[in-house]
Amino acid sequence: MSILINKDTRVLVQGATGREGLFHTQQMLEYGTNVVAGVTPGKGGQTIEHAGKSVPVFNTVKEAAQATQANVSIIFVPPPFGSDAILEAVDSGVTGIVCITEGIPIQDMMKTYRFVKERDGWMIGPNCPGLITPGECKIGIMPAHIFSQGDIGVVSRSGTLTYELVDELTRNGMGQTTCVGIGGDPIIGSSFVDVLAWFEKDPATKAVVLSGEIGGNDEEMAADFIKNHMTKPVVAFIAGKTAPPGKQMGHAGAIVSGSAGSAQSKVEAFTAANVPVADLPSEVPGLLREKLGL
Amino acid sequence: MKIHEYQGKEILAKYGVPVPQGRVASTPDEVETIARELGKPVVVKAQVHAGGRGKAGGIKLGKTPEEARAVAEQILGMDIKGLTVEKVLVEEAADIKEEYYLGITTDRAARRNIVMVSKEGGIEIEIVAEENPDAIAKLHLDPAIGLQDFQIRQLGFDAKLPPVALKGMGAFLKALYRVYLDYDCSLAEINPLILTGEGKLIAADAKVNLDDNALFRHPDLAQYQEEQEDDPIEAEAHKRGLTYVRLDGDIGIIGNGAGLVMTTLDVVKREGGSPANFLDIGGGAKAEVVTKAIDTVLLDKNVKGIFFNIFGGITRGDEVAKGMLEAIATMNIQVPIVVRLTGTRAEEGLALLEGSALTPAATMQEGAQKIVALVNQKAA
Predict the structure, then answer these.
(1) Which of A209, A236, B96, B111 is the one with CA 20 to 30 A from B260?
(2) What tens digit of pLDDT does each residue of B322-333 get?
């Protein structure tokens, strides 16, 4: 078991023939991800041949979805076209979105997010490394070899820091159900709370590692959710504990966030939710063992 | 990206919002001329990207053109939070009876725009937000319908605005919302919106921040982009397109991904070291970015060692290694460099680095310990 994706997920790649899109399509094929289609406007009819597999490329998501029954799309298109690509996928019935693209305008994402939700879809990212269910399906750009199958769910705001934490877990014999990098943009498809709720429902996930960072109040909201709605143990890590205070935000920003955002505020929130916070990534496996009574 | 008050007011004026009469100036002569043209007492306001201008002495009244010139001489060239004042806005001094607040910004958690209205506007709005949050009426906007009249009425009543403001505020809020959308803002504020003794509403100050991700749609505004950092190395780093923050230690830190770099700073500090900077080469960096990053970190003469922490994903280890070798070959690097390289194509990268003067480390913690030891050894 896992959340969102598994071996039966049929993956479509938007921007499959670009430099990054092609490289990571090949990497996903090598991992065994069931990549069924690519979409690049104007390149319909071509194929991507790799690792003994042949992936047809289509001009539109509609054609691709009809021909292949793809149900999740991973997006590599440049930022000015990112929102359009997501809307195209969702409108074509592909309601699972993983958006790698970094730099999509905030107002575009606000409308796009609403449309995804209206169509009962889910979205990871943008500006994220994607997600992986080890041994079954990788939809993202993460280095595959650090992951292993197991019963720990991982959710993180940062890309490379996720790798660091997963590497610690794997080297300590703690495999993962699914690892999700939610992305660092102001408007993201799935928050910590969304992903925690999925892990809580997944029977295979026994415990969750949450990796946050300073700024915003997503971690505080996650702590609140854990306290009130989760039965499974959670261990947290927060990046930026020693960072000096960030640049001052405008009046309105301060009004929305209040005094939340400091590492101290996040540690306090997690502590109140009975979530231990590791000082180093290498302490995470030990804290998990304690929590699980291993 | 922030734009100046006078630029924000130019935009608001284009959308029909009443703003005080006035113009921007960069010399005392110009200030005097503008004050003479206006023919009434003026306010001279420093145009810098820093909060607390008034408290720093950057906003002053000039009752006569001569007085305006005198205060301009004080303000132009003055230093506010490390930034030099190069321009001032010269405006008619308003007769302020009351001050209100109007603002629109992005609420990350709600994934919607939020509109805020308060009858307690002015420079203390942050204190109002902390101590008396109920004095600020707030409303999230559904992107499907935007800002409607009924919502404006509701905000006005919730904020307990007096009748004259209740009636007049809608036009300001509508224009502010159009500006917010048309210019891809992350924040648009009129603070204060003033009620004059004559009963007129005027936008006395404007703050407009733009979404950096959307600047490609606004080439006309992108030209307003000014360096907002007083630190010369930070300014240079930004010119080179690097995400760099200067700190006060002696160990240069370079890594990929903000979360990982922040964690690297934390770990180095824990091991007894003192980071000199935060530098994130981002995702998918090519060799030349790595070379540039090393060069930038070494602009800080306090740096006695560099710790590279790369966990490759979209960034490839071989590209990073090529950049490091290029830096070693072309720069005269006198400080020790510790490299922790893992993830995508790390083996290829490490093979390239074999035989170089770099010190390898298997983990972040080991790397932190090594660089701290090397820097201390050198100091001893």
Answers:
(1) B111
(2) 999 998 889 888
